[in-house]
Specification:
The strands form 3 sheets. An 8-stranded mixed β-sheet has the order 1-15-14-8-5-2-3-4. Strands 10-11-9-12 form a 4-stranded antiparallel β-sheet, covered by helices on one side. Strands 6-7-13 form a 3-stranded antiparallel β-sheet, with helices on one face. The chain is globular and about 55 Å long. Helices cover about 25% and strands about 25% of the residues. It folds into 2 domains: about 150 residues, Rossmann fold (3-Layer(aba) Sandwich), CATH 3.40.50; about 70 residues, 2-Layer Sandwich (Alpha-Beta Plaits), CATH 3.30.70.
Length: about 240
């Protein structure tokens, strides 16, 4: 475990650890994918003081991340214009011992998965509260659904015991709609369910665009702890452009 003097929470600690990982990469990354969420904000705040980071182009997974990158003075690229990324950095809602993730509390799961798939190296940053033994044990699993398919998808999911709940936004009427136009639905995963099999089943249902289950896309997880301490867990990547190389 690495550490720095001074006080900081787990999210900031994870952000500092991710910056350290990026410093180790040679040459420095020039095409950087950026996820969405509060831990990513901590990471970008730390990264903004790095001189080498000013030369890179950053590709956001959401409009929220694009606005934040611009506010911090980073060079922002459109994610649809890049075929591959040198590195992708993002948070997660849950991480299990195999490096599998649940993501999507920020409703950016589709953009996040597209960037993670196209990145050559994925760094996931979390505080230690996000570590779980079983995915879905702390947080619901989000999916994105085509709006016109929502009624029949909800019936199908309910019949499978997944208790779907259309996510409602604060400050607006109606369901949460992603940047890509899909409705976000949260699922309760019954105990004992194999998440890899569940992911396959969900993708087989017409109208489901993407799931918040991320499998085989993790290269490293930086776990942050109180007091500016962190550790790095490394995994064998199985999916994406690296898997095809």
């Amino acid at each position: 475990m690495l550490g720095l003097s001074g006080g900081c929470g787990g999210k900031r600690s994870a952000g500092i650890g991710a910056v350290e990982l990026l410093r180790e990469r040679s040459p420095p990354p020039r095409r950087v994918g950026v996820g969405t969420g509060s831990t990513v904000r901590e990471f970008l705040s730390e990264l903004s003081s790095e001189e080498w980071a000013a030369d890179a182009v950053y590709y956001p997974s959401s409009r929220d991340s694009a606005l934040l990158l611009a506010e911090l003075g980073f060079n922002v690229g459109h994610p649809g214009t890049v075929a591959s990324l040198d590195v992708y950095v993002d948070g997660a809602d849950e991480v299990d011992p195999y490096g599998r993730l649940v993501k999507g509390r920020g409703a950016a799961l589709l953009g996040e998965k597209m960037l993670a798939y196209r990145s050559r190296y994925n760094i996931i940053i979390v505080d230690d509260s996000k570590l779980v033994d079983v995915l879905g044990s702390k947080k619901p699993v989000p999916i994105e659904v085509v709006p016109d398919a929502l009624p029949h998808v909800l019936v199908e999911l309910e019949s499978r015991g997944l208790h779907p709940r259309v996510r409602r936004g604060s400050g607006k009427d109606g369901p949460v709609v992603s940047d890509w136009g899909g409705v976000i639905v949260d699922l309760t995963i019954p105990s004992g369910v194999n998440v890899e099999e569940l992911d396959i089943v969900l993708h087989s249902i017409p109208g489901i665009v993407e799931t918040g289950i991320f499998i085989g896309l993790t290269d490293a997880v930086v776990v942050g702890y109180e007091g500016c301490k962190w550790k790095v867990e490394r995994y064998q990547r199985r999916r994406g452009i690296l898997a095809r190389a």
